[in-house]
């Protein structure tokens, strides 16, 4: 294998959530080979920065030289540079640093300052050499004098940074006080706005490092800038949603979330096949209508229908019993996958669902079993699924498709619930 090489020039985080550690985790998870030049060694964790030691300039230069002499570096990202001297050192190497992504780290998520005040102006020189600069709202205010409060002001920040010489600026929307997180990518020719739901969590340690590393990794793979940025934003959104509850502070983002999700696809598909085989063996024909049985399973960090496995064409009733029409494929389910993903917004532990028939016998059986249900009316009803789902909800009565959707956290639980429902109505 010959993966593309990405170089990160940044500080070390002893807590592992940000800095060099976050960069290398993200780069490797993205299919590239991570190399590094450490600028500072910090003593920090999820609760704050306890101390910082700046490496001598000659040691930083030696690390960069060692990497550039031996590796065909395809992209570079910078993080914590700390002082004007370090920034100027990186500027001196700029013509040898392809696809340079500059994350202008100034303050840690905990509020601790990571950049000396006299180094702020020097950043303009590095920005002028960059392929992309990725400030958050606080950093944007330092770099341009504009503290963006809305999409229009974020665009103004991006335009100013491009005027400084950067090929592009991604003004991150995490700190901009609007309902949806709105990231604004500005180039000399275009403006792209990327929106995604805001995740209510303080576990954002390492978010900036992870995003810039993800973008640099995609650039190293040959993606164009817009595609690389969109991919990086998607990864960060998921990394924050499925954050890691580590340490005594808010926690850290999940740097390897997409790689772990991809790794779980085969296991998820095999599990769905196992559920289908068990339901056929137990003969749950009584809960199957002409539309068929739809058994679906989501990967651990699924957010899209193409990350939900299902039997293509569903499981159908035939004269000789239940038979799957085709094999298990990701993206093969529509409504059932959609409802499972919506339910996971409130209950991310839910991983499996089965679409059964609806009707008075089913509803009577659900009452007899004492299962908590949510009714989804044909016109959408009062509130979205995720807003009405309770911690004990077992089934959705979907009147829009005349279906009953049985939910479960684990495959055995789904199998037994569907079998129990079938036996109750027989």
From TrEMBL:
Transmembrane segments: none
One GO molecular-function entry: ATP binding
Keywords tagged on the record: ATP-binding, Kinase, Nucleotide-binding, Transferase
The keyword Transferase belongs to this UniProt entry's keyword annotation: yes
Name of the protein in its database record: Hydroxymethylpyrimidine/phosphomethylpyrimidine kinase
The Pyridoxamine kinase/Phosphomethylpyrimidine kinase domain, residue ranges: 13-254
InterPro entries: Aldolase_II/adducin_N_sf, HMP/HMP-P_kinase_dom, PM/HMP-P_kinase-1, Ribokinase-like, ThiN
GO CC terms in record: cytosol
PANTHER family: HYDROXYMETHYLPYRIMIDINE_PHOSPHOMETHYLPYRIMIDINE KINASE THI20-RELATED, PHOSPHOMETHYLPYRIMIDINE KINASE
One BP term from GO: thiamine biosynthetic process
Domain of life according to the entry: Archaea
Domain spans labelled Thiamine-phosphate synthase ThiN: 275-387
CDD domains: HMPP_kinase
Keyword Repeat: no
Organism: Halapricum desulfuricans
Pfam family, one: ThiN
